[in-house]
Amino acid sequence: MLRKGLALAALGFAFLAGPALAATTHEEPKDIHWSFDNPVTGKFDQEQLQRGYKVYREVCSACHSMNLVYFRNLGQKGGPFYDPKYPNPNDNPYVKSLAKDIQVKDIDSDTGDQISRPGTSADKFPAPFPNEPAARASNGGALPPDLSVIAKAREGGPAYIYSILTGFVTPPAGLTVQPGKYYNPYFSGDLTSAWSGKGKVPEGGVIGMPPPLAPGKVTFDDGTPSTVANQARDVAAFLMWAAEPKMEERKQFGLGAMIYLLIFTGLLYASYRRVWRNVAH
Amino acid sequence: MADTVVGANPDPHVSGDDPSRRDFIHIVTGAAAVGAVATLAWPLVDQMNPAGDTLALASIEFDLTKVVEGQQVVVKWRGKPLFVRNRTPKEIAEAIKDDHADLRDPQTDEERHKPGKANWLILIGTCTHLGCVPTFGGGEYGGWFCPCHGSVYDTSGRIRKGPAPKNLVVPDYAFLSDTKVKVG
Amino acid sequence: MSGHSTYEPKTGFERWLDMRLPIVRMAYDTAITFPTPKNLNYWWTFGGILALMLVMQIVTGIVLAMHYVPQVDYAFNSVERIMRDVNYGWLIRYMHANGASMFFVAVYIHIFRNLYYGSYKAPREVLWILGCIIYLLMMATAFMGYVLPWGQMSFHGAVVITNLLGALPVVGNAITTWLWGGFAVDDPTLNRFFSLHYLLPFMIAGVVALHIWALHVPGNNNPTGVNVKSKEDTVPFHPYYTVKDGFAIGVFLLLFGFFVFWQPNILGHADNYIPANPLVTPQHIVPEWYFLPFYAILRAVPNKLGGVLGMFGAIALLFVLPWLDTSKVRSMRYRPTARLYFFIFLLACIVLGFCGAKLPDDPVIPGVTSFTLIDSDLNSYVWLSRIAALYYFAYFLIVTPVLGLTETPLPVPESISAPVLSHPAAAPVGAAASPEKRG
Q1: Strand duo B173-175 + B180-183: pairing
Q2: Which pLDDT belongs to residue C421?
Q3: How far apart are CA C196 and CA B74, in angstroms?
Q4: What mean pLDDT comes out for the span C24-43?
Q5: C288-410: CATH homologous superfamily?
Q6: Do A279 and B28 touch (CB under 8 A)?
Q7: What pLDDT, in 10s, does the model give residues C221-265?
Q8: What domains does chain A contain, in order, with CATH numbers?
């Protein structure tokens, strides 16, 4: 117990009093912009979210779970399939049909056996693996992270995601990359020990995910060209929505609230001046 | 000293100025403050209302092929039991016969099912007395019997005997097809 | 100034209540008629702002507690449920998280105001100590609160800080195990942190009541540091300071709103959106910004126990400040030398905060390597922290006692009303004496 405590403390203190360990590097995320960038007025582009959902569903969901997102979220205000005719997303027929396309696990109410049944809008997005060890076993020991809040869980957010997805390059000569890993300059890592070439150690690291996107891999129903860049851009936007579905509501409420506060503060200032007008202070 | 500096202290009787209290600006500011508090209070109150995931389970779809004639299936809906009963013609006839009997909570059987679907009786399975779950087929009318305090319901779910004040509640539902019904 | 009460109960009910529980009288005397120096500047509005923030945090916190689940498998997801499914949950959560930061912004301004104007000096020593207690309770509350979402930073921050106590000789490990409720930060730790996080703010509220009571005995300090001499030096708290505090609160809320609505995650750390994993340590463990100066002091000392003592010592020193300061003059308005050292102190605190966010061995000036002293290159953040920390301690232990004795202060005005009227009232005939230039 003492050892474990000390080991944990040492781990925590690894950065404190001592030489810095791994000097991890990565390239800064690419400079890319989205419709929702503006902190005051930014909104999601619904069509982009729809295309992004398709990329998630057809490519990413094979390995990445999204445990915090439900099919009904797709039909909520601000979501990819919101229809003002159906304010209650559970009734949205498109959402229901999207859910029905996916099999979810359930228990048979008569026998208690595990079964698969078509999803409903009340269901969560099903996870591709039943548990962590299964996920690691299928991915060379690496755990594909859950994508529900990934856009908020990484510095750079959607720009980082876009950079990773479009950033896979052939490793420069002199860089040893083990099989099952892939060089990506935007992924944080320390390649000092793997570098035997000339010049500076390349920035970035090796990621367990093979380049997931390819030209034409996902057909976009609205005719948008299915380039890797477009797929990456759309799925990153979708992931930003998934991480913060209430973003538009926050900004709209915020604008109203801030304007009100500005006026209110002005009124308070006027009241203050009126109260104090006769007092030398 | 300090007193000789004119205006150093607020003198409420100077030049007929009403001290601060009732100035228009203060009324407007006060009103704005009340508005701000109200706008803040609403989210604090509304957050206790059912959340998105609770509302998601607010309506369910049920497959009627599971219910054999003469039987009922109980499912959970909005945290409460829901009775889905497939009535026999005899049970329907008995219910209609008593349409104008001396009922505590008068209702005709027609009012308690969808037109043309008399065999399907869908009720919230909570006794209107104090909330116990009545047992299927009990009591002299062959409807339901509540074991807690002895309320007896007929084959239309109407209260006939015992302390319950109202008939078993018919929820909002609609037939999506002959074999599927959406409740809630 | 506890003078005699001028409250006159107007209605029959008020008279009846006043005879049994004079609570209306107390509220009246405390917040309506209380004679307050008329020259208080905007730095004095932060007390009111702090009271508002305490109420705001308690209200939003209680609401969040209706939905949050303090169990390791559910905590992170329950917070996300609040963000996604609970009506206005996103608003309440962001208000609570950013509210904590705003609370600390206000408390730091409040503390620095007290340092500058000598508000901790006699007869306000107990008032100051109560304030230090409130500050400690706030830090404990904030620390435990940050653990609750059970993200990577929550977890590993808790690991680092609770492990600190292991540095204490003899009892260290027993205390750490006791605090954890186990052999590591885990479910029992989370559950008890939730319970204590809910409790402490109410203790803070109690100490705040004592704080206001202790304030009202001598009355407020003021920018001149000169005691109130007569009624002409004061104005009733309402409406003069209710409206001024109101205006300051409005401005403060605008800043608060900026964070809540437009940049709700900028003061936090992305890693806290990764669910806690005991087996993976984040590349860079960083506490919330308001703890950074103390984190820097902790890391500045090259010895684990030394660092812990340094960090707690830095806070403990605040408690004895009234006795370290030998100056006869309260306000630094009239102490130009002290004022200079004060601003350097402020700078040192900011530098410490900045260093707390960096890796200790990262170079301050990039690309430059000089020589190694003790364990690190001189051009490193850990050395910058050491210099700033040394100044921090020197300011309290050397500068403050010495300067009070050696400095020649500027002439202090005789009373509050005497000098300066920065807003001479619109006087009709026989205008005011021309205001002296203030010191």
Answers
A1: antiparallel
A2: 52
A3: 44
A4: 95
A5: plastocyanin oxidoreductase (1.10.287.980)
A6: no
A7: 999 999 999 988 999 999 999 999 999 999 999 999 999 999 999
A8: 22-69+146-260 (1.10.760.10)
Is residue A281 exposed (0-12), middle (13-18) or buried (19+ Cβ within 10 Å)?
A: buried
What lies within 8 Å, CB to CB, of A84 at 6+ separation is none
Q: What is the pLDDT of residues B84-138, one digit of tens each?
A: 999 999 999 999 998 888 999 999 999 999 998 999 999 999 999 999 999 998 8
- If phi over 0 gives left and psi between -120 and 50 gives alpha, with beta otherwise, what is residue B178? alpha
Omega before residue C123 within 30° of 0, cis:
yes
Residue C439 and residue C418 in contact, taking contact as beta carbons nearer than 8 Å: no
What's chain C's average pLDDT? 92
Which CATH code fits C39-219+235-285?
A: 1.20.810.10
The residue ranges of every structural domain in chain B are 2-46, 54-183
- Minimal CA–CA distance to C274: which of A56, A157, A145, A68? A145
C92: chain B residues, CB-CB within 8 Å: 43-44, 47
Q: Domain ranges in chain C?
A: 39-219+235-285, 288-410
CATH superfamily of B54-183: Rieske [2Fe-2S] iron-sulphur domain (2.102.10.10)
Torsion of the alpha carbons at A157, A161, A166 and A172, rounded to the nearest 10: 90
Strand ranges, E, within B13-67: 60-63
Min Cα separation C82/chain B (Å)? 9
Q: Which of B53, B184, A68, A148 is nearest to C87 (CA)?
A: B53
Q: Same topology for domains C39-219+235-285 and C288-410, yes or no?
A: no
**pTM metric for this prediction:** 0.89
- A110 within 8 A of A117, measured Cβ to Cβ: no
User: What is the average pLDDT value for chain B, to the nearest integer?
Assistant: 86
Q: Which of B4, B9, B17, B23 to mutate to test the interface with C (most CBs of C within 10 A)?
A: B9
Rounded distance between C-alpha atoms, residue B113 and residue B117, angstroms: 7
The two counts, helices (H) then strands (E), for chain B are: 3, 10
